[in-house]
Design goal:
Layout (H helix, E strand, L loop, with lengths): L1 H26 L4 H7 L3 E8 L17 H7 L6 E9 L5 E5 H4 L4 E5 L5 E10 L4 E6 L9 E2 L10 E6 L7 E12 L9 E4 L11 E3 L4 E9 L10 E5 H14 L5 E2 L2 E5 L2 H7 L7 E6 L4 H5 L6 E5 L2 E2 L3 H9 L6 E8 L2 E8 L1 E2 L28 E2 L4 E5 L2 H6 L9 E6 L4 H4 L7 E5 L2 E2 L3 H13 L5 E7 L2 E7 L5
Parallel strand pairs: 7-12
Antiparallel strand pairs: 1-2, 1-4, 2-3, 3-6, 4-5, 5-6, 8-9, 8-11, 9-10, 10-13, 11-12, 12-13, 14-21, 15-16, 16-17, 17-18, 17-19, 19-20, 22-23, 23-24, 24-25, 25-26, 25-27, 27-28
Length: 478
């Protein structure tokens, strides 16, 4: 009888389990209707380009024992083939994809969802956001997508990705928004949407849809140690893409706004030295030649708190805001200066063309040897740094510009705050606490002022091989 009772309980448990599983299955979201509706708007993109002049290939090579797979990745045999995805945004044939999908292409071919192949022409690219606009001319009736609002999505929302992974053709994957505003150091305007939807090689340029079937992102990158999906993918927000694509469509290029400030993040120590809350605003570390900000009165050492009424919390946000502001518009920039808020009107001008960096006159060596005893007076114990005034010998030793002004670092003690902050021998300190430094006496004077003010950190303006930046250093008690 006991065995019969156990059998009955087991059967009841199994029925209950099966019943609950069936109920849960009915509760899962189905993407079938969305996939059926949206797939015709997504295209496969293949490009042909010859190897570089030195014989190096400018596309990824794939090989497989499966001849079907080989056909996808090397269909023509001569030039290299790159595959990616894109999506139709207008009935007259405009298509958005990634710049890296069509980069250096001699031929661009678009395959529609019905397997019709059409040659495409390049309208324009924007390397800074990795976006490209291409166009096809066809008698086929095209089904454009609806561009949504990427600002409205929330972490945890369902998304649908459609693309061309590994050249296999239209594939649908689903996941959620894992994070927003990701900076993966891919470009100056990084603001990626992160997702756990499966995105693989060949999915680049494909759309990320919300549950209304509207595009909220362009799938562009993955984090992977294997080359395949590991559950971390990144998409360009469509709100950023709208502005870029409109300019590519009308001008064939992107013109960005510019005010000519070099900026760096605020942090606890810099903020303390300026009497400001940490993470509030961004610090002006330099001003470019021809900068409209300089003409308006912005100074090195100012903290930009807001731009055109928008609070600033990081450097990438400010860069995007300035870049997307209409050229010629005058905006109010609120600064923090001398523990006071200062509003200035700054005109947005066109971002100048980038020029290649000049090669260094000498190799970028680090000098770690200690100085001789006769330089002992250059050691500032509170900073664990030895300084020297700039002489012809220092200019030659550290390959400094002949017109360099300030004091040069000649020794940094191991384990010091300066070492942790990345300072190096040969760096030139031009300002301390936003005051000009010309001599060793200036350094001692400004450090002593900080000691008198409760041993607060000192703010150094550092000129190194890469450019100009601020560093806040803690004082060591002697």
């Amino acid at each position: 009888m006991f065995d019969n009772l156990k059998l009955k309980l087991l059967l009841v448990g199994l029925f209950a389990f099966c019943g609950s599983s069936a109920f849960a299955q009915e509760g899962y979201p189905s993407f079938a209707d969305l996939a059926e509706k949206l797939t015709p708007s997504v295209v496969n993109i293949s490009t042909i380009h010859q190897p570089d002049a030195d014989g190096a290939e400018n596309a990824v090579n794939f090989s497989s024992p499966n001849p079907i797979i080989d056909r996808y990745f090397n269909p023509k045999g001569n030039g290299q083939t790159s595959l990616g995805s894109g999506f139709i945004i207008s009935e007259d044939g405009y298509i958005i994809t990634n710049n890296h999908v069509i980069d250096k292409a001699e031929e661009i071919s678009v395959t529609l969802s019905d397997n019709t192949s059409v040659e495409a022409k390049l309208v324009g690219v924007d390397k800074k956001t990795d976006l490209a606009l291409i166009k096809i001319d066809t008698n086929k009736k095209l089904q454009p997508v609806v561009l949504g609002d990427s600002d409205k999505i929330r972490v945890g929302d369902w998304i649908l990705a459609i693309g061309n992974p590994f050249g296999l053709g239209g594939s649908v994957t689903a996941g959620i928004v894992s994070a927003k505003s990701r900076d993966i150091e891919a470009g100056p305007y990084d603001n990626f949407i992160q997702t756990d939807a499966s995105i693989n090689q060949g999915s680049s340029g494909g759309p990320m849809f919300d549950m209304k079937g509207e595009v909220i992102g362009i799938n562009s990158a993955i984090f992977s140690t294997t080359g395949g999906s590991m559950g971390i993918g990144f998409a360009i927000p469509v709100n950023l893409a709208k502005w870029v694509v409109e300019q590519l469509k009308t001008k064939g290029e992107v013109k960005r706004g510019w005010i000519g400030v070099k900026i760096q993040p605020n942090n606890d120590e810099i903020a303390e030295s300026l009497g400001l809350k940490a993470q509030e605003g961004v610090l002006v570390s330099g001003l470019s030649d021809g900068a409209s900000a300089k003409d308006a009165g912005v100074l090195v050492g100012d903290v930009i708190l807001s731009f055109d009424g928008h609070l600033i919390d990081n450097t990438k946000n400010l860069s995007r805001m300035v870049a997307e502001t209409q050229i010629g518009k005058k905006v109010i920039v609120e600064l923090w200066r001398n523990q006071t808020k200062v509003p200035l009107e700054v005109e947005i001008i066109e971002m100048p063309e980038e020029t290649p960096n000049e090669p260094a006159a000498k190799n970028n060596e680090e000098y770690n040897e200690s100085l001789n005893a006769d330089d002992e007076d250059g050691m500032i114990e509170e900073l664990d740094i030895r300084f020297s005034e700039i002489t012809p010998e220092m200019i030659d030793k550290y390959s400094l510009p002949t017109d360099a002004q300030g004091v040069v670092i000649t020794e940094i003690r191991l384990g010091s705050d300066a070492e942790k902050k990345g300072l190096r021998n040969g760096d030139v300190i031009t300002k301390i606490d936003k005051k000009d430094v010309f001599t060793l006496n200036d350094v001692r004077k400004f450090v002593n002022e900080a000691k008198m003010e409760n041993n607060r950190p000192v703010l150094l303006l550092v000129q190194d091989k890469a450019g100009v930046h601020f560093a806040a250093l803690k004082l060591k008690e002697k």
